[in-house]
Amino acid sequence: MLGSSSDSEPDVQAKLVLDSSDDSEAEEPQNPLVSVELPLYLQPSRSESSQLSTFRPTRDLNVYELSADEANALGLQNETSVLSIDREETLALLGIYTLTVLKGSVSILGVTLSASKIAHHVFVPRSAPIPILRCASSDAHADLSIYSLPPRIRHNHGGAVVAIQSLDTGVEGLGRVCRVFDGVFEPSRWQRSSAEVIRPGVSLVTHSTRDVLPFILPESWSFALSAAETPPSSADPIPLSVYVVKGPKKSGKSTFARTLLNRLLARFQRVAYLECDVGQSEFTPGGLVALNVIDNPVFGPPFTHPNLPYRAHYVGATSPRCSPAHYLAAVEALLETYKLEVQTSMPDDESIDTRVTDVTPLVINTMGWTKGLGADLNAKIEELAEPTHVFEIIGPEEKGWPTAPPAYDTLYNQPAPSKAFQYTLEAISPNLTNTHFNAVDQRNLNILSYFHAIFPSFTSAPFPTKWETSHPLCARYPYEVDWSQAFDQVILIGAGYEDVIPLEISNVLNGAIVGLVECEPGTEDPVYLDPCGARELPYAQARHPLAPSTSTCHGLALIRAISPSSSHMHILTPVPPAVLARCRVIVKGELELPIWGMLDFTDANEGVAGVEKGRVPYLQWGKSEGLGGERRRVRRNLMRKAQM
Amino acid sequence: MRLPRRVPWASMNELDQLCSWVFMDEGDLEAKRFAINRLSAWRAVTALPHALESTLSILTARLIDTSETQQNSSWLTLRQNYATAIIRMVNGLVDPLQAGAYARSIASIAAQLGLPSWLVELRHAATHEDLPSLEMLREAARESLTWLLHNYFLPTINPSAPRPSTAPPLRSVAPVLKQYKTLLKIVTRDTSLRKQNQPNIDAIMRDIERWLAEAKLAADFAADAYGWDTIDGNDVGQEDPREKWALERLCDALIEKGALVSLSQKKRNIPSNEFVPLHPSLVLWTPLLAHTHTYHPTFPSVLTTRIVENLLYEQPNTGFDMDVVSLEADESQNDPSFHLALAKWAAWVINAYDNGQENGELSLRKNVIILLAATLAPGKTEGAKKIDVLTALLGAVSSGFTELQKASDMLLSATHPLQPQHWDPGDLTVMNERLRSLMSLDGESQKYTDDLDSAPTTLLPTQGSDIGGWRLLDHHSGWKSCPIGVYYPNHAA
Q: For chain A, what are the domain ranges?
């Protein structure tokens, strides 16, 4: 950016966006209306700060600290605060906590939670809209109590009682790794005085500020969500639903998809989520087209819930523009997988879960590249998915591109007219988007969160319960891998990568992020006839990426170093060890380790692992001296004569 | 915290070696092939600096041209190779320097870069007209490589060596401001002339924008502007130091006598109770300030800081500033009415543009108060000049803000020496308290700077020793932490 966007309203200020990579992120500038009659005092209209919490915590009146015995009696471990929320009261909590509804029901992030034994994990950093807890209108069964509350806890009729516990995951340590997010789980400097600590690491925020914004469900969203989840009135078997969410960047697409997922999880035991947005993925780091199967609602931004996918394919970049055909094949293969393996299953009658167990609906999040080729790709995905419901978010008018439907009939067959229910949704208000954290920062954080995550080895609980953030990546014990035994093939995908000759391949792989791919035996021609004991990495120029129909990517790995003299490399990966040996192909795309991941926050001299600043390989501090020393960047909002 | 940049080379030696492959011996095709292979590999590691990207495409075109085994039957292919390489090189050098809101001509940017103008012509011809002749293209490729050697490779490899200064000095903005002033005077005296003059005013506004864009580019060459990072994709949000430098130069010109503050002492000395600039000045300059603010959100902050610095310190003109011809260079700096008028402008800008939002950085108002406080602090006031003006400014800026007013009152109150305190038994508890909190801080930091030997083994159960060639190292392996990209051999194995 050419200026810090700190103290003027977005509509006063023409944003000059220097856009390095993506072709659809450039913002159109406002034409300056240079008026000579200016008021002497320009007072930019300040966005009114609104009240987030009407709940006023008062000890032993609506906030109770449970004794260990009391907590145990309720089946809750650890120290617990119990909050009694009245009707109409709102409550905004910042931090990381578990939320258990003891009585009545509350709504959070567009989802209503009723009293149950489930402790929901809630992650609330300042970098994302803050969920507002609200007492939901209690239904007829409200009197049915699962918990017998200690008598000292008062609650009014129609109110709700919730238990809040601190949750220790280590995720807040990512702020030390990527300093942009330092302290995001704590109140900002400007709020520290007014915020009230409920439990260690959980504080109540009373008012919104420019960097703490509430989550607000637009009316059209709420309407569409209700319509989508209403079960058909007849006693028909439960229909097989496929939901497609589409819309331009920054319109709230993934927020809507996440809300829809959470809403569906109230009725279904499992919901599948197909991520087609390889730039900003919900459950995986970027570069992957992934199918995830989720069984608990997710409350938090993507970096707080990295998840091992059910099946995924690596496209290696944050946009499919270099390999659209491979991208489409990956989406098609995942849709196939969903229909064959996930969509329907035997009903589980044993389960105490009252939710539907034999049908798993699918939510598809499409990418925000909605112009040109991006529009064609999205249309093709929609056609392949055969959705029953389509949610389209209408973003700010995109200038210079025709709004007419894409003419892809020359490329593909004419699509059949869609039979899906269509919903048109309003875009999320730009006033509610946090401008302190941009898309690049968020993407970097997702990658770093993934590499610091510790996934439990048990596939039944794919959410990481922990993040290991006490050490930087450079200080973690790596796997030592003998590539002559472990890998059959190295593939590069990216524009111009076919020019990398075999002699240079280890230069390319050193420090690279790669996809770990398993492929069905016999589907790939080996690079070497006898790979065992090979002297060189099994790489051949200009190989095509593996066919998604016969391969699967188990996750990403960081090749932290390659031995110059032996056939060994050191690799960091959170992928469970059980599947590592099956990944016999490594694929390197354009995805890079964020610079934050190469630094060492424990080194007091700002060096890395004891190596002083100027001597750290592959990093350069300070200004580049020569001309043309910067990466190419593109400006798309330059004003020409005609606009002057 | 300034982030480093990711570069594809492990050390400068690797870039040095590449440079010698490219430039040492023009006839050594083998070396050229090495260079092409290395650059192609680097491209797959991370996005290359534009100069290297251009070197790769020019080298590739030349290698095909000079190979003895002339495989390509078509000379057109060769011309297209050359042409693409040169078009992309010129565009890539010029595009990032389109720093302003309005497009500048490629030729003017190229001139500032010291890029031969005929290359710009060739780029235009190759893009829009007939593809140039092979002879021209070969010459252009040679000239481009030479330019890259002198402007990218040599300065990057030897940062201390002086770079040939080919850039013409930045033109002065003063004439533009003068023109603006004249025009606005006409318009404000007789509003009926406004419509007729509006296009001229717009043109001047654009010219100022263009000048700022030029200044940003010139910032690269300015001696006092060193010490910043190139803006990377990773720190997009950071303030652009070039923008700051350019705005500072504009503000300096505005601060000169005859611009914001009128030349005539008589006009300045019209007594006024309010601490605001005189009305005629306001009417004259607000359109320009507002327009600049529209495109440069940091402008108010730069202007106020610059004014306050001007009041606080004597102004030794930096060498570069000499290029910016001042309107009234020799007028004595000791002119109370001039300083008072400047201070009024600072106060006005703060009142007009400070919206109280802090956003992690200090508001305009607080920033100025902090600057002033350093000089007005008790004990420091002796010897400092312009105390009256500074005091008045401080008062004007903090009035209406209770907190700030309290603080500034404290500053301005007579400098009472601190009363020697009587020892109180409670003091010991306070001191102990402080000591404890300091100690606990230390424990906190200890947690993060733990001994590296305790690096975690991913908390996963050790899966035997070896699965399909994978083996997780642990503290028995003798592995030590080291930067990403460095292989620490495992001796214990």
A: 1-30+616-644, 238-433, 470-598
Q: State the CB neighbour count (10 A cutoff) for residue B197.
A: 15
**Are B373 and B262 contained in the same domain?**
yes
- Give, for A364, the enclosing helix (H) or strand (E): strand A362-365
Residue of A510, A558, A632 with shortest CB distance to B53? A632
The answer to whether A7 contacts B357, with C-beta atoms less than 8 Å apart, is: yes
pLDDT in tens, A466-483: 899 999 999 999 999 999
Looking at CA atoms only, how far is residue B380 from chain A in angstroms? 31
Asked if A426 reaches chain B (Cβ–Cβ under 8 Å), the answer is no
For B267, counting Cβ atoms within 10 Å of its Cβ (0-12 exposed, 13-18 middle, 19+ buried), the class is: middle
Q: In the structure encoding, which two tokens stand for residue B138, read together?
A: 């070969």
Cβ of A92: how many Cβ atoms within 10 Å?
25
CB contact under 8 A, A46 and B488: no
Query: Comparing A25-39, B164-178, B241-255, which segment has the lowest mean pLDDT?
Result: A25-39
Count CA within 13 A, CB hemisphere, residue A568.
18
Domain that holds residue B16: 12-157
Rounded-to-integer distance, Cα B46 and Cα A631, Å: 10
Same-domain status, B257 and B127: no
CATH for A470-598 (3.30.70.920, 1.20.1250.20, 2.40.30.330, 1.10.510.10): 2.40.30.330
Q: Do the Cβ atoms of A320 and A494 come closer than 8 Å?
A: no
Q: Read off the pTM.
A: 0.76
Are B137 and B60 part of one and the same domain? yes
Q: What are the chain B neighbours of A505 within 8 Å (beta carbons)?
A: 41
User: Which of the residue ranges A294-298, B167-171, B185-189 has the most confident prediction, judged by mean pLDDT?
Assistant: A294-298
How far apart, in whole angstroms, are the C-alpha atoms of residue A451 and residue A556? 8
Same domain, B78 and B197: no
Given B103, B124, B157, the domain boundary residue is B157
- For residues A253 and A397, the answer to whether their CB atoms sit within 8 Å is no
Q: Is B55 within 8 Å of B77 (Cβ atoms)? A: no
Task: Measure CB to CB from residue A631 to each of B47, B243, B361 and give the nearest one.
Answer: B47
DSSP symbol at A414: P
Using DSSP's 3-state secondary structure scheme, residue A394 falls into strand
Contact criterion met (CB below 8 Å) for A115 and A104: yes
For domain A238-433, the CATH superfamily is: P-loop containing nucleotide triphosphate hydrolases (3.40.50.300)
In sequence order, the 6+-apart residues with CB closer than 8 A to the CB of B191 are none
Distance from CA of B475 to the nearest CA of A (A): 8
- The pairing of beta strand A311-314 with beta strand A288-294: antiparallel
N- to C-terminal Cα distance for chain A?
21
> Which pLDDT score, from 0 to 100, does residue B489 have?
84
Interface contact B237-A635, CB threshold 8 A: no
Size of interface A-B (CB pairs under 8 A): 390
ipTM greater than 0.90, yes or no? no
Chain B CB within 8 Å of residue A473 CB: yes
Sign, Cα dihedral of B8, B10, B12, B14: negative
| Minimum-distance CB partner of A477 among B148, B457, B489 | B457
- pLDDT above 60 for A459: no
Contact, B85 vs B50, CB < 8 A? no
Number of domains in chain B: 3
Whole-angstrom Cα distance, residue B186 to residue B208? Answer: 19
Best residue of B481, B488, B491 to probe chain A, by most A CBs closer than 10 Å? B481
